[in-house]
Amino acid sequence: MLMRSLVPLALVGLLFVPELPAQKVSNGPEASPSVTAILERLDRLEKQNLELQSEIQKLRRELAEAKPAAAEVAPETGPSVAERLDVQETRTADLAQSKLDTSQRMPVELTGMLLFNAFSNGKFGGTLQNPVTAALNRGQANAGGTFRQTVIGLRFHGPKLPGGGKAEGSFYMDFWGGVATPNGNLFRIRLATVDLIWKNTTITAGQDKPIVAPREPSTLAQVGLAPLTGAGNLWDWQPQVRIQQRFRFTESTGLKAEAGVFQTLEVAPTNAPAAAVATLERARPGWEGRLNFYTGNDDRGFQLAPGFHFATSHIVGGTVPSKLFTLDWSAKPIKEFEFTGAFFKGQNAAGLGSLRQGFTILAGNRVIPVHTTGMWGQFTYFATPKLSFHVYGGQELNRAADLLSGNVRQNVIYAGNLIYKLAPNILAAVEASQNRTLYINNGLRLNNHYDLALAYLF
């Protein structure tokens, strides 16, 4: 009797079907053939669920009857009736859950980088792990080790969209918040986006780099703060909404056009009067656009992308325009060599992550923008599939006539590193860099920085 009951139960197991696609259904008259098929399949799942419940009840009764006899005979090989009962109950629960998840399941992928850094700074490094400028005053050299630059990310793969599109998302955090002590590190949002993607169009909402500055140098030494901050790299991760339209001219040549609204992070100069700083509007909308012309592929290709940024800062009852022309590029004539970089020129760039001197407050609360030029470049040599060499540098140059005594006239950083792949997901790197900062009426200051990094990618 017991074996005969297990035969139909095995047949039911063979009929077990995977979960349904994540689609919303409707019983209305406008339901499409695919929706009707889903409804019919749900009905079949419900019938199978009832049949499984009936078989489980039979098994429970037979199990209770078989217990006295089982004590007098040797146990059979293979799974017991109780074990099979547990399996069927689990399958029943999974079946019920699959019906609930058909319209809302969104696969999530864990990704990130566990990163350890051992670092050393010279006597003009201040107290920071990665100083943006060489300090004005000489202090003590500092060194240490940290996991604060570890990055944890989630990737979301969402449902299909009308018109053949799909939804995706990403969310990346690090431990750069709080203070630099073993137990003082806090989670901080780095990047977070929701992407609605079609064949030639993508709409993105989230927190990311400025639209006009998507590139940056390759390094494991400076991750918590973007490399070349204050030395040519506009990087502030800020909320934004943008749309990208793609035009393909040939199989390997085309244009990507982007435009959107970027929220600037307004900062006042460090020597500004406190009363004036209190009137600063901390967040302002900025309008940005970028055209990326490309040709080639991953092994050999070229990209050139001009762009613009426009916004206004509000302080002491007035406005200060922020206007920038930008240009970024990538040139890979052969697969072993690559040259990338970016350039910007205009005024009041502090709201995008440059030096904290986008404008100057003069006597009588008169505010003038600081005219600035920034650029950076990186040469990369891929020696082997496991070993790559990177040499990069950048500068930000501010117009002296717009600055006060003690402000930064020029900030330059140059660096070199090698990154070696110990295993497919384990990287080791060494880097040396120097920061050269020129102050108005105070001269030049230098700071050397050294870093040893070990990263586990997951």
CATH H-level superfamily of the largest domain: Porin
Main sheet overview: 16 strands, antiparallel, barrel
What is the molecular shape?
globular
What is the CATH T-level topology of the largest domain? Porin
CATH class of the largest domain: Mainly Beta
State the secondary-structure class.
Answer: alpha+beta
Number of helices: 4
Low-pLDDT runs of 5+ residues are 1-33, 98-103
Content of β-strand: over 45%
Distance between the termini: 52 Å
* Share in helix: 10-25%
Order of helices and strands: HHHEEEEEEEEHEEEEEEEEEEE
Mean pLDDT: 86
Strand order, sheet with most strands: 1-3-4-5-6-7-8-9-10-11-12-15-16-17-18-19
**How many DSSP E strands?**
19
Regarding quaternary structure, what we see is single chain
| Whole-number tally of structural domains | 2
Radius of gyration: 30 Å
CATH architecture of the largest domain: Beta Barrel
Write the layout of secondary structure elements.
Layout: H1 2-14, H2 33-70, H3 81-101, E1 108-121, E2 142-146, E3 151-161, E4 165-178, E5 185-197, E6 201-208, E7 238-248, E8 253-265, H4 274-277, E9 283-296, E10 301-315, E11 318-334, E12 337-347, E13 359-361, E14 367-369, E15 371-382, E16 387-398, E17 408-423, E18 426-439, E19 443-457
Antiparallel strand pairs: 1-2, 1-3, 1-19, 3-4, 4-5, 5-6, 6-7, 7-8, 8-9, 9-10, 10-11, 11-12, 12-15, 13-14, 15-16, 16-17, 17-18, 18-19
Describe the model.
The strands form 2 sheets. This protein has a 16-stranded antiparallel barrel. Strands 13-14 form a two-stranded antiparallel sheet. It contains 4 helices and 19 strands. Helix 1 packs antiparallel against helix 2 and helix 2 (33-70) runs antiparallel to helix 3 (81-101). It folds into 2 domains: 2-101, no CATH class; 108-457, Porin (Beta Barrel). Residues 1-33 and 98-103 have low confidence and may be disordered. Helices cover 17% and strands 48% of the residues. The chain has 458 residues and is of the alpha+beta class. A hairpin with a 3-residue loop joins strand 18 and strand 19.
